[in-house]
Amino acid sequence: xxxxxxxxxxxxxxxxxxxxxxxxxxxxxxxxxxxxxxxxxxxxxxxxxxxxxxxxxxxxxxxxxxxxxxxxxxxxxxx
Length: 79
Ligand SMILES: [Zn+2]
Hints:
Layout: E1 16-19, E2 25-29, E3 32-40, E4 43-48, H1 51-54, E5 59-63, E6 66-71
Antiparallel strand pairs: 1-2, 2-3, 3-4, 4-5, 5-6
Bound molecules: zinc ion (ZN).
Zinc ion is lined by residues 32, 48, 50, 54, 56, 58, 74, 76.
């Protein structure tokens, strides 16, 4: 359960970064896969990897290895 203002709560939201077979940057967070959408300075915006298949508009923003923002909810379970 997320508690506003609790910095330690972000630790369980630590994203994991990978390279896909075609060399694209991908990221896994809490069971969901994301594909890199855009980079602005050090902020990287990630789109849900199932966005096209599932009409899902979940977005996560990371700086380094820390999640700093997320928008929208997934329309589907992880996996
Ligand atoms: Zn999604």
